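Workshop exercise sheet. Pairs work together: one partner reads the sequence aloud, the other fills in the structure field after running the prediction. Swap roles for the next sheet.
Pair: D.N. / O.F.
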Amino acid sequence: MSVLALTPNQSLTVKQQASSSGVAVTMSVSLDPDALEFPVEAESRSFQNVPEQTPVSPSPAAAQDRAPVSQGSPITLSLLLRGFGGLIIVAAFVLFLFEGWRESDDLSRGLLLIGHTLALTLAGLASGHWLHENKGARLFIALALAAVPVNVAFVGGLIYPFLTWDASGSLSAAASVWTQSQGHLAMGPALLLSVGSLLALALSVWLGLRIMARQSVAALSGLYLLANAALLIPTRADVVVSLMLVGLTLTLGLFSLRLRQRDPTLATVEGRFARALLMLPLLILAGRSLWLYAPDALFLTTLSLLGYLALRFTLAAMAPASQWRGLIETLAVSMALFVTTLASGALLPAWPIAEGVHLPLAAGIFATMLLDLSQLSERRRRGYQSTAALLLSLSLLIDLALFGGFALAVVTLVGGLAALGFGYAIRARLLFAIGVITALSALTTLATDALAHFSLGGWSALVLLGIGIIITGSALERHGERLKTGLAGWRAHFAQAD
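Structure field:
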């Protein structure tokens, strides 16, 4: 005897009882709407527990209905509709942000924007609770979370005229999108609207991230609200915005990597979206300055540095065996070179820095980023470190040949000795030879300068430097093994901490 029943969770249950043996077989077939989007393989897995003596013979009509699905594309109509609807909503928020609705007053604009964001959150909750459809629900929640920085940017423009410390008249005509509209609000109502909007947005962020990253909802909510808070700071100065962008990128990137190591669920699609979402307020903060104001060399250099940091944190989060790792690493090195070019070509000459130190500073910037990348690449670690030391030594050597001077010669000597020692430690002949040449050139310059312009201070410094080098060599000879043991202990200590 067979009994058909619909359970409350929309599953069809077939019970077959054998009167002779008293054995009962239960078979469940999911009727979840999402299951309609998968090929027949999913259906075959649903029947894999059915005994061979009780085969299920589908009707000809059912076979005809399933035939197109088995040969269909993984891109379904529902997926296309969800994607198209999501793009429309994103485009609407982008247009509101950069073009604006200028014919209305501040109160209507603010209420409309916050209302749409809350409507997306409620639509996601309702879709998951009543329709039991997770894909559309998560799309609504993702769009609501992505709309939060747009709301905060509007609130930041609303309170900017009352709380700003920028000089008057610094705003351009395009800034009306980011400040008050034609119907101005007084300070009291504007602050009241801002506080109410921020409280509603904070609740929306917590609800959304509780769905996207359940185990790390508190940490991710705090980081996301911190990033959005930068849009509320009432200044548009390039220096302040640049410092905020760099500081927040480092903070969010480091904490995001630590959360990823602690919470394995952040490796899922929802988890990756929640971590990438942290950078959206920073993109809007940078876009605001690019859209409204003429960025200077400092801001452009900052944007290129942010590009390097984004690639760097992406590289740190990737698996060592990932096929994209080489490409990301190459892009990071290229971006590091681009940062160095911008800094040396436009930024350093604009600052009151002596021309003689421009080349070593530029080499130091590039070498610092190479040393940073060496911590993320096991295969190319020695190569990055050797290149960094080589660039520093060559820059000092070229600078010494062009400008000379006692102080520069001392710095070049120290750099040459460091390159010499590092080249000897890693058995890099070219680096060792460059270090020897750099150190000898610096000693020659110091000796020539001492003979040409004798001074007690220079002579004393030269003697003290020679004494220090001799003592360093003697210490390495006498306590070399002990130093190696100590360094090994330090490495083991930090390896255990990691």
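Discussion prompt: Residues 456-497 form the longest helix (42 residues). What would you look at next?
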